[in-house]
Amino acid sequence: MENNEYLFSFEKLTVWNDARDFITEIYELTDNFPFKERFGLSSQIQRAAVSVAANIAEGSSRFSKKDFARYLQISYGSLMEVLSHAYVAYDRKYLVNDELKNIRKKVGMISSKLNSLSRSLK
Q: CB neighbours of 34 closer than 8 A, spacing ≥ 6?
């Protein structure tokens, strides 16, 4: 979809688009996890990553800024869940140090944007 074809307000949000890119990266990383983790850690980290973008989108549809801010908090919580799962994956040797560092960097960037958006709603 081209940038000028936005239908909904969340599609214009940089943080939502960053979250979409993050989902793709998480899926690519978890595709390399052992098969035995398909319904375990892989699924958990993928669902948490999807939740980040989904809560931004859902919150943007709310009629009050307070409600939107609440969904941004939930999105932030899901982002922290991704990071926690990434540490478990690293400890299990499913991720290497550079992959974990990259996830931490992306989590930091997205969390900063979520916090800025949340502050702008007050």
A: 94
Residue extents of the structural domains in the chain: 13-120
From 1.10.3470.10, 3.10.110.10, 1.20.1440.60, 1.25.40.10, which CATH number describes the 13-120 domain? 1.20.1440.60
Q: For the chain, what is the total number of helices (H) and then of strands (E)?
A: 4, 0
Left (φ > 0), alpha (ψ -120 to 50) or beta: where does 36 sit? alpha
- Reported as a single tens digit per residue, the pLDDT across 69-83 is 999 999 999 999 999
- Binning pLDDT at 50, 70 and 90, where does residue 7 land? confident
Residue with tokens 């994956």: 89
Q: What is the chain's Cα-based Rg?
A: 15
Quick check: pTM over 0.85?
Answer: yes
